[in-house]
Specification:
Elements (H helix, E strand, L loop, with lengths): L4 E3 L2 E3 L5 E6 L6 E10 L6 E7 L4 E3 L7 E6 L4 E6 L8 E12 L2 E7 L3 E5 L2
Parallel strand pairs: 2-11
Antiparallel strand pairs: 1-3, 3-8, 4-5, 4-9, 5-6, 7-8, 9-10, 9-11
Length: 121
């Protein structure tokens, strides 16, 4: 029943920037870990970055230094600032949340429906 709402995807030129957002419903109390995965055509879904409630972060080597993940615990929202975008960044980006605490209990692993990022000339 819990659905993460993603926004910010779109089409940009190489070198451009996008900022992805992912928000949980207002009823959600907290989320332990939030992050972003991506899946390019013909490839497996891969972890891009994640961040814990304690602000510990992880970045895939392919995006380290270009992307920045952050979270707003009051809004229970996670962001992914994507700079210096490359064509290889083209993928559907999925928001992920682990241990989602809400009025009906705890959900172990929740996903968004994905937002498309296209980087091309």
């Amino acid at each position: 029943q819990v659905q993460l709402v993603e926004s910010g995807g779109g089409s940009v030129q190489p070198g451009g920037s996008l900022r992805l957002s992912c928000a949980a419903p207002r009823s959600i109390f907290s989320i332990t870990t939030m992050g972003w995965y991506r899946q390019a055509p013909g490839k497996q879904r891969e972890l891009v970055a994640n961040i814990t409630s304690g602000e510990n972060t992880y970045y895939a080597d392919s995006v380290n230094g270009r992307f920045a993940i952050s979270r707003d615990n009051a809004k229970i929202t996670v962001y992914l600032q994507m700079n210096s975008l490359k064509p290889e960044d083209t993928a559907v980006y999925y928001c992920n949340a682990i241990d989602v605490h809400g009025p009906n209990g705890v959900y172990g692993d929740v996903w968004g429906q994905g937002t498309l990022v296209t980087v091309s000339t």
